[in-house]
Amino acid sequence: MLTVPDCVSSLGPKRGWLLLLAIVERVRTRGPVVHPIGVGLDAQDRFVELPAADAELVLDPARPTGWSTSDEALLPDSTVSLLDLFVPLCVGTRAPDMVVAHLAQTLDGRVATNSGSSQFISGREDLTHTHRLRALFDGVLVGARTVEHDDPRLTTRLAPGPNPTRIIVDPTGRLPASHRVFQDGDAPTLVVRGRGQATFQAGSHVEVLECDVTGGWIAAPTLLEALAGRGLRRVFIEGGGVTVSGFLDAGVLDRLHLTVAPVLMGSGRPSLTLPEVATIDEARRLSCRHFSLGPDILFDCELKR
Ligand SMILES: NC(=O)c1ccc[n+]([C@@H]2O[C@H](COP(=O)([O-])OP(=O)(O)OC[C@H]3O[C@@H](n4cnc5c(N)ncnc54)[C@H](OP(=O)(O)O)[C@@H]3O)[C@@H](O)[C@H]2O)c1
Asked: Is residue 127 lining ligand 1, measured as CB closer than 6 Å?
């Protein structure tokens, strides 16, 4: 028996995802979508722009979801959620330089145990979400402690799409070259270090990017500027808590994706840590949308840069 989505629309979630990848490529090569345009995929799944009336989707940066269609009722719910979640990362003036961070945290705001164990706090759906974010960005950036504890690969194994450049922030050059990102050659890899560190014997896919370090820290705008100089303008910050907090505190994030899993840890590495506030009035109250990701809830917070 055919499922309802198969009967009524050709823009199922798989083609919807291919369309999103094509929209990002269009933004990279031809600039941001700042006015409504009709888009779709042709019979060979190639990206096409066409009049709104004939289009599968109209990209419209003025709408909170960034898109519309002549008959939304014909789209499967899964496609609508996919577009609602990801189109805002692909349209508007900020799209070519967008910086987005994601963390998966427990109900009590932890991203790992004190010993560094974090796999996996959130469920399969959130893991897929993370891989999709990787595919939509030029670079995926993590802090040194994440590489130390997780030895991640930072590739798009759970979502069709290109592997982003892996960016590892290791200011003192303390990470050994034996970590997978420095050895496996699956994606170009940049290790960001302070100036004048010892030589690094990693694979030929690894480059060192030297930045100024002040008080042990590389200012987030300096880091983003250096990455943009390497053509890495759309940057996804994948963790951990210290790294994401630094970018959030510097005011350089366009969006924060916080996935909250129904897990209590009661101890562990904190999610976000920001300068202390004395009263509730001083706390930041964010404009957020919510999405169900299996057992978890994703808070998609729009931030002003
Ligand atoms: N749940 C999740 O979503 C998630 C995601 C990723 C990781 N994790 C877990 O989180 C834990 C690690 O998180 P964490 O918060 O402890 O550490 P982290 O953010 O992974 O790494 C922090 C370290 O990265 C370097 N760093 C990052 N940004 C920098 C900057 N702008 N300037 C200079 N140095 C910078 C510094 O290295 P130095 O210490 O060398 O100065 C800093 O101490 C791991 O256990 C991992 O498993 C969880």
From this structure: no
Q: Class for domain 98-302, per CATH?
A: alpha beta
User: Which conformational region is residue 294 in: left (phi greater than 0), alpha (psi within -120 to 50 degrees), or beta?
Assistant: left
Mutate to test the pocket of ligand 1, among 145, 193, 260 (most ligand atoms within 8 A of CB): 145
Asked whether the predicted pLDDT for residue 18 surpasses 50, the reply is yes
pLDDT tens column, 102-118: 999 999 999 999 999 99
Distance (Å) from CA 216 to ligand 1 centroid: 13
**Where do the domains of the chain lie?**
4-94, 98-302
Q: Which residue among 134, 151, 243 is best mutated to probe the pocket of ligand 1, counting the most ligand atoms within 8 A of its Cβ?
A: 243
Least trusted range by pLDDT, from 88-92, 198-202, 205-209, 263-267: 198-202
How much is the pTM?
0.96
Q: Classify residue 262 as left (phi > 0), alpha (psi -120 to 50) or beta.
A: beta
State whether the beta carbon of 36 lies less than 6 angstroms from ligand 1: no
Q: What is the mean pLDDT of the chain?
A: 94
Closest-lying ligand 1 atom to the alpha carbon of residue 259: 3
Report how far residue 211's alpha carbon sits from residue 52's, in angstroms, rounded to the nearest whole number: 46
Q: Is the dihedral of CA 89, 93, 94, 96 positive or negative?
A: positive
**Cα(63)–Cα(67) distance, rounded to whole angstroms?**
7
Indicate which atom in ligand 1 lies nearest the CA of residue 244: 19
